[in-house]
Q: What sequence folds into this?
């Protein structure tokens, strides 16, 4: 994408939006609108907004092909440059960055039947509405429509970039049919090896992971579950009621613990999910999948409510995701209990 064609470039607004071309893993089109005082305006795909290099393309055939997703830019590291701070790309995936961070783990709008023998269903955001910010705005509001064979949903995201970038999520879901597992606020990460599990092969790096543990704040205690790259699928559940929060954390911050100048695992964020309101009884589930290398995510964590909505019944919930590095959510000294086995 050509940066000079960014949405709001030249409007003297704090945010800019750039778009992703369809192709490679991202073949499905999404519709994107700009919300302005006069109403919603669809942002049409324009091949002139992309640089194809020496590739020969038929621009007439590309008309109306749509975008794969978009990214948001805001100056968080220096006032002179608008950094990439949020991306929506692929299915219902999104990820964000705070000051001094590098992309690592991702979040999703919704997960269905993860780690079930029937196979996982991947809902996707099919349409977005991005609200034009004021010249002095410190936040950006985005609306999204989610769709899948057995679920549909309306989402509202409010982005607040900073040292810790915060994303508020409000969702209203409807199931078309019953599902075996409705997974809310899912986080997806990668763990290959680390301090508690050495590499099975020659590798100069001491550790390779986007996250090194699952942290849970229940009403009575804090739990810490170190991540592993298991020999076979490993699913662990932790029963809790109205949890104050949970997250996949990258606690090891020393560069020497990774020694990777390209991947910079030491700068990858932790993601802390803070539920809003009473979520009731349920369980936080951790899924760990064996992988041979670091190219695939193999860690998933999410919330499963005890009471699942019936088909066509509105299910409303809200939460906040903190993308952390310098100021991480940690338990008070003496509170944490490390667990090798899940409870519940």
A:
């Amino acid at each position: 994408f050509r940066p000079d064609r960014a949405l709001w470039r030249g409007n003297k607004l704090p945010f800019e939006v750039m778009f992703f071309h369809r192709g490679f893993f991202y073949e499905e089109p999404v519709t994107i609108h700009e919300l302005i005082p006069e109403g919603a305006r669809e942002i049409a795909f324009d091949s002139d907004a992309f640089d194809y290099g020496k590739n020969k393309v038929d621009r007439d055939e590309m008309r109306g092909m749509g975008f794969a997703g978009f990214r948001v830019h805001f100056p968080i590291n220096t006032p002179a440059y608008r950094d990439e701070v949020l991306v929506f790309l692929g299915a219902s995936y999104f990820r964000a960055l705070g000051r001094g961070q590098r992309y690592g783990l991702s979040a999703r709008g919704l997960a269905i039947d993860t780690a079930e023998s029937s196979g996982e269903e991947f809902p996707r955001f099919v349409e977005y509405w991005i609200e034009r910010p004021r010249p002095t705005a410190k936040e950006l509001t985005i609306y999204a429509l989610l769709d899948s064979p057995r679920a549909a949903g309306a989402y509202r995201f409010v982005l607040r970039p900073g040292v810790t970038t915060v994303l508020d999520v409000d969702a209203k879901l409807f199931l078309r049919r019953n599902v075996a597992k409705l997974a809310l606020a899912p986080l997806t990460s990668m763990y290959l090896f680390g301090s508690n599990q050495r590499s099975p092969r020659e590798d100069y790096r001491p550790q390779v992971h986007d996250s090194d543990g699952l942290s849970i704040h229940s009403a009575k205690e804090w739990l810490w579950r170190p991540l592993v790259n298991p020999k076979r699928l490993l699913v662990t559940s932790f029963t809790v009621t109205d949890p104050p929060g949970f997250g996949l954390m990258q606690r090891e911050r020393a560069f020497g613990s990774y020694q990777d100048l390209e991947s910079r695992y030491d700068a990858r964020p932790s993601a802390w999910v803070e539920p809003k309101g009473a979520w009731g009884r349920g369980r936080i589930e951790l899924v760990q999948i064996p992988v041979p290398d670091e190219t695939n995510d193999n860690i998933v964590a999410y919330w499963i409510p005890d009471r699942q909505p019936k088909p066509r019944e509105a299910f409303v919930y809200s939460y906040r995701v903190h993308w952390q590095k310098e100021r991480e959510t940690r338990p008070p000294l003496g509170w944490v209990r490390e667990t090798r086995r899940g409870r519940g």
